[in-house]
């Protein structure tokens, strides 16, 4: 499925990850910008998101996270609360998926070509970040970032992002990164126009 893009995880890239992309309207605007990850060689994998909207909660959807070449792919997967994530094992060796966060879960260990699901329906305060680990291969690590609405994106290597399909209005934009942080920023979106927000992440 698809979701609003960031990496510029453009819509088609999110679709490959199985995230849902809401339909765009000519009355909507967008939020673009850059993320600078201070001290790191890449600016990728920061999740930029609209903290709250007046829209009705989106319908539950699905998304996918693969285990391929001994990595969780995508490394960071943002989803809307209520989303069911399918964890696929594409490697010839068995993999496990578990998370020590919030309600905690262990989906077990399974062979190549099989999937296990988990629905991310609980979140007291957004974002809820679930670290994904493998008991068979402790060096593997990924993240599922649970958010309240579909207006988010994931920064690319250069730090660029774009959140499309944002209704006009004033918002607070937050950013999450596995190692760094930055304060939220206000932004005003106008119909058919692109607002901008840049972040410098630091420890």
Describe this structure in words.
With 203 residues, the protein is mostly beta strands. The chain has 2 domains: 1-54 and 151-203, Carboxypeptidase-like, regulatory domain (Immunoglobulin-like), CATH 2.60.40.1120; 59-148, Sandwich (Immunoglobulin-like), CATH 2.60.40. The protein is built from 1 helix and 17 strands. Strands 1, 13, 16 and 17 form a 4-stranded mixed β-sheet that branches. Strands 12-2-14-15 form a 4-stranded antiparallel β-sheet, with no helix packed on it. A 4-stranded mixed β-sheet has the order 4-3-6-9, with no helix packed on it. A hairpin with a 2-residue loop joins β3 (62-68) and β4 (71-73). The longest helix has 6 residues, at 11-16. Mean pLDDT is 90; it is low at 1-16.
Tell me, briefly, the overall form: globular
Mean pLDDT: 90
- Helical content class: under 10%
Task: Briefly note the CATH topology name of the largest domain.
Answer: Immunoglobulin-like
Q: Could you say which structural class the secondary elements and strand pairing correspond to?
A: mainly beta
The first-level CATH class name of the largest domain: Mainly Beta
User: What is the annotated CATH architecture of the largest domain?
Assistant: Sandwich
Quick one: biggest sheet? 4 strands, mixed
Low-confidence stretches: 1-16
User: In percent, how much strand structure appears in the residues?
Assistant: over 45%
- What value does the Rg take, in angstroms? 16 Å
Summed up, the helix count is 1
The H-and-E topology, N to C, reads as HEEEEEEEEEEEEEEEEE
Distance between the termini: 33 Å
Going by CATH, the homologous superfamily of the largest domain would be Carboxypeptidase-like, regulatory domain
Number of domains: 2
Number of strands: 17
